[in-house]
Description:
Elements: H1 2-12, H2 20-61, H3 69-88, H4 94-115, H5 117-128, H6 141-156
Helix pairs in contact: 2-6
Amino acid sequence: MDDYSRIVKNTFSNISHRSAYSQMIIGVTSGWATGFATMKIGKFAAFAIGGGIILMEIAHQEGIIKVNWPRLTKGVSSIANKVESSIQGREMTWADKTERYVDDKMEKAEGLLKSNSKKVRKWYTKLIGDEDGPKVNELHIFTAAFFGGVALGIATG
């Protein structure tokens, strides 16, 4: 067991000092492993949750049940708050509640912005001052390779 921990420690210690090829190999390999494991572990949960949602939607379409979506969303949010407070071992503070409220409003705003992408592009161009969008000055090779590996792992999972 000590040999494996030593190998892992030596491999991942200070990756930025390694060559670009080493960074890419380590990034792609660790990203692929992460993505592959995530896909294998998450398939059952996704199937169960997605299947439940599909069955509920079919029952709603057939008139078997009537879903009050705003009430359901509020209930799910309430349960999520209770689970979060039990995991953290403390009640939500006003700052946590404010953060949750702002997050909800930001998600709604994001949805509106996505639906009005032309207006957003015009606003962004005015803000940044460049029609081509942001310029990437520096990108760590390991990070790019890691996310590429995650995508590859998900695709092969």
